[in-house]
Amino acid sequence: MRRAAEPLCGGRLTTRACATGGARRTVQPVSRHWTARVRRRAAGPVALVTLLVSALAGLAACRDAPTQPVRIRIATGSPTAVYHAFGQSLATILNRELPGVQASVVVTAASAQNVRLVGSGEAELGFTQADVLPPDSAEHPAVLAVARVYDDLLHLVTTAGGPVRTLADLRGRRVSVGADGSGTEITATRLLEVAQLGGDQIRKEHLGLDDSVAALSAGRIDAFFFSGGLPVRGVANLADSTAIRLIDLGDWVEPLRRGYGQVYVTRDVPRSVYGVEPVSTVANPNYLVVRADLPEPLVREVTRLLMERREELAAAHPAAGRMSPRSAIATTPLPLHPGATDWYRATKP
Q1: Which residues are listed as membrane-spanning (predicted)?
Q2: Terminus-to-terminus CA distance in the chain, angstroms?
């Protein structure tokens, strides 16, 4: 049975603080110099805390000193998107179960911005669609994978009484293709290109999910794209107040695969999700990614909690319940972080 982590400096994993009075307590992001000082393996929370604390100098003097908990920023998406719900639940779990870690979520434009934030060290974890990642990701690993978490499905949403019934009907109309820097924007733009609707064939708006919902409700746009795990809360809320239609995109999966690679697959949106006619659509995997320089014991513990607390994560959003260790390791083109690899190998049946 795994023992509870022993408290250090008031129950928190700390960086060194000044032993004199009056110092201000600050939260530190995980620093790069840990990488060379932390041993490779940690069997559980006690070992994690022991290894990380031993990597930090001067802890003997910290009993009466202000503490500096380790910050883990999780780059998510808009407040009504799956990334945000998933990230909030994950942050709650990390805060509760990893002493000395202070996790929080960051609202972003989603995938592409999340990858940039993690790669630049402005976030420690983030969610991204697979098609956002460049094919040569393995050659420049500033960002590594923790797990494949679930599939994103591309939604094309319009009003039930409107003129848009097929993808071709978007020609000349006002359409939100997703926020700048989002995975939605990338997938939707590729889809429009293979459908010969690129360039000025439609009147593009670049709106996030919440703004897209508001604009469609107000009649300022004719349709919007959004890519997310089922159900997307913003789309579900819209369907509760407005008669909507989802446009079938299943016929465009093969053209996308020919043009942009095998990452795209066909998935169904059943009637039970939003209470509208079922459709087939374009889907691609979603990954939880991490800074490559995060210590292996810490990433191992994040991976463990991600897998062992699936029921709790699924309570925040059903998409999280689709994770499994078997599917989690399929993160092409992004390599797994060594800490994640350690956990998967240690728990392999």
Answers
A1: 42-61
A2: 19
Do residues 131 and 260 make contact, with C-beta atoms less than 8 angstroms apart? yes
**Separation of alpha carbons 148 and 114, rounded Å:** 15
Q: What is the mean pLDDT of residues 244-254?
A: 98
Token readout for 236 is 């579900």
pLDDT digits (tens, 9 = 90+) for 284-299: 999 999 999 999 999 9
Between CA 82 and CA 41, with CA 126 as vertex, the angle to 5 degrees is: 125
**Token reading at 283:** 């889907």
Count CA atoms closer than 13 A to 305's CA, side-chain side.
20
Residue 106: both structure tokens together = 């960051």
**pTM of the predicted model as reported, rounded to 2 decimal places:** 0.77
Tokens at 49, concatenated: 């805390």
Token pair for 40 = 């490779």
Domains of the chain, with CATH numbers? Answer: 14-151+286-347 (3.40.190.10), 152-285 (3.40.190.10)
Q: CB under 8 Å, gap of 24 or more: what pairs does 273-276 form?
A: 273/230, 273/231, 273/236, 274/231, 274/235, 274/236, 274/239, 274/244, 274/246, 275/239, 276/160, 276/239, 276/244, 276/245, 276/246
Q: Are 180 and 109 in contact (CB under 8 A)?
A: yes
Q: Which of 320, 120, 98, 116 is nearest to 228 (CA)?
A: 320
